[in-house]
């Protein structure tokens, strides 16, 4: 389990694309109680809704850690951020990051942490004892969120479902598999930082044996059809052995973000491929709903879009933020007898 000093100042740099600022935005949305403010290097940067603060202002408000709230392609830390991170460390604030590049790989950050008596905290570090996957069936039930692409709502859907299922009297926990989810939940395994041979074992470790009626709601990663991140999705699907899955998509997104020559797959193809792979390890796997990010649609267009999805696929279609997850929770309770 991570030891994190709270509250946080969320650092967004000058990242204008909310999809790449998802760590900061997600943390501010789900755990505003842990955040005192945001630090942006440009007025055009993504806005979490938290107050803009300098390091000095955040410290005065009680901030103990500077959290890097941007997820960069490739996981590298931009060199232009280093002076700001040094300032925070020298002021006594921890720096928390979920990047593939480790904070400790920068000598200037190590030295600044020593001067300030602060800590470098890398969230994207998997535990050392991950085994190779066994494929053995575990007790309890599991739901996995899968996507047509990255950065479109798999984490939000899983968090909303776990909350909604608990509110409906079901036994359910959110299981984090990425850096933002881990910061929100306080624990988990960063699947995309695991060596490929151990991906399935890591997914098994995320959701161990549990009570027969307990649901682990597992945060999805990547996308099976993704040209760059498909392998982590495959390992997570095999290792989690889901009884149920929800397909996540974004209204109007026609190409893979960052890989514009690749079209997003049809939802029907995502369902078919997920079942084809998943049923090798859980013959009873089934799709129980569609979760759509409709943030760019007005209420009328949203209702039309979700209604069309329900008609085409015969599944409940929701936006986890705008409309809530109750139709999928109801379907789960009905189909699985809870």
Automatic annotation (TrEMBL):
<dbReference type="InterPro" id="IPR027417">
    <property type="entry name" value="P-loop_NTPase"/>
</dbReference>
<dbReference type="InterPro" id="IPR035086">
    <property type="entry name" value="DgcN-like_C"/>
</dbReference>
<dbReference type="Pfam" id="PF07755">
    <property type="entry name" value="DUF1611"/>
</dbReference>
<dbReference type="InterPro" id="IPR011669">
    <property type="entry name" value="DgcN-like"/>
</dbReference>
<dbReference type="InterPro" id="IPR035402">
    <property type="entry name" value="DgcN-like_N"/>
</dbReference>
<feature type="domain" description="D-glutamate N-acetyltransferase-like N-terminal">
    <location>
        <begin position="48"/>
        <end position="126"/>
    </location>
</feature>
<dbReference type="Pfam" id="PF17396">
    <property type="entry name" value="DUF1611_N"/>
</dbReference>
<feature type="domain" description="D-glutamate N-acetyltransferase-like C-terminal">
    <location>
        <begin position="132"/>
        <end position="329"/>
    </location>
</feature>
<protein>
    <submittedName>
        <fullName>NAD-dependent epimerase/dehydratase-like protein</fullName>
    </submittedName>
</protein>
